[in-house]
Amino acid sequence: MNRGWMAALIAAAALLTPPPARAQTDPRLQVAVQLAQEGHSDSARAVVGKLLSATPPTDSLYPEILYTQAMVASDAGEMRTQLQRIAVEYGASSWADDAILRLVQIDYATRNLSGAARNLERLRSDYPASPLLPRASYWAGRVYFDQSNPTDACRWLADGLARSEGDIELQNQIRYLNQRCPTVTAAAPRDSSRRVTAEPAAKPPSPDSAAKVPSADSAAKPPSPDSAAKPPSPDSAAKVPSPDSAAAAVAPVAPGPPVKTVYRVQIAAVATQAGATDAERKARALGLTVVTIHEKNLYKVRAGQYSSPTEARAAAAGLKVKLGGNPFVVAEP
Question: Cβ(181)–Cβ(150) under 8 Å?
Fold first, then answer.
């Protein structure tokens, strides 16, 4: 693959997303980024290389320098190498989630869809509180739709819509992809109490029976005293349908309302059943409903049931104080 063409692909992928959530904090790195933006890429790389050589790998600034070096790299290979170093060697740094999302973009641009999917799932499982997850959901929609996997695509997109309130541009991008997701509607339940069986209408007499003259014997036979004196029983009187039953016989049953999205707060994602049980116990002690989902070798414990993302986010903030960790909102259709 031509190196220039590859670099163009990577640049195009990077332009499809806003800049990372965190900007460079060191003034020297800010100068390097500005030089690159002004077209002085060689000078930018020289500044970053000099700073990298003078900084020990144990310094907290080191992963930030590696990230900046990736952003001003001359080719995709160097960019990928530096980003992978951050993700593997400095996974606890504040730049790790940025690096993984950039790797997703590189994989997508080079059509390495399986690699992009692996990095997306790593981002979500290892960095559940990352502010980049809404942006990642857009890329997940593209990756999984291209893999003919609408289930995972729509799962990510629903979560992205729930987390991206306030970012109109991102919401529009996610909604555009979300048009490919099926709309689930609940079937109206059958109401047997409203079902009315219509009485068959009285059959009109046939011409033969109307014209038939009673025989002399039957005409001459007088009614017996018992039959003449016997009044018609109440049950034999003509039945008049009640207003309720008449209306029920003709009124159509209204369709049920569409299924609403439920928002929960994920409080734990652990590898063992014992860990999940402990998280469930703590949430129930606070009076919350708890749902645990076993997915991708993790037990994901989710608490509460909220009707809006705003309500769920407020609950997540309270649970962070009470339970610790990094609780976040999950949309469940």
Answer: yes
Return the structure tokens found at 260: 């609403």
Scanning the structure block, which residue is given the tokens 């020289």?
A: 46
C-beta of residue 183 within 8 angstroms of C-beta of residue 162: no
Residues 304, 315 contacting (CB under 8 angstroms): yes
Alpha carbon separation from 218 to 21, 51, 223, 228, 238 (Å, rounded) = 103, 124, 10, 16, 27
CATH architecture of 3-112: Alpha Horseshoe (1.25)
CATH topology of domain 262-332: Alpha-Beta Plaits (3.30.70)
Q: What are the angstrom distances between the C-alpha of 223 and each of 149, 228, 236?
A: 83, 6, 20
The helix or strand, by DSSP H or E, that contains position 306, with its residue range, turns out to be: strand 298-306
Annotated domain spans of the chain: 3-112, 132-181, 262-332
* pLDDT tens-digit profile, the chain (333 residues): 444 544 444 444 444 343 444 567 888 998 988 898 888 999 999 999 999 999 999 999 999 999 999 999 988 888 999 999 999 999 999 999 999 999 999 999 999 999 999 999 999 999 999 999 999 999 999 999 999 999 999 999 999 999 988 889 999 999 999 999 987 544 444 444 444 344 444 455 554 544 444 444 444 455 554 544 455 554 544 444 454 544 444 445 455 555 568 889 988 888 888 888 988 988 888 888 999 988 877 888 999 988 888 888 888 888 887 887 778 888 876
Give 296: exposed, middle or buried? Use CB within 10 Å, 0-12, 13-18, 19+: exposed
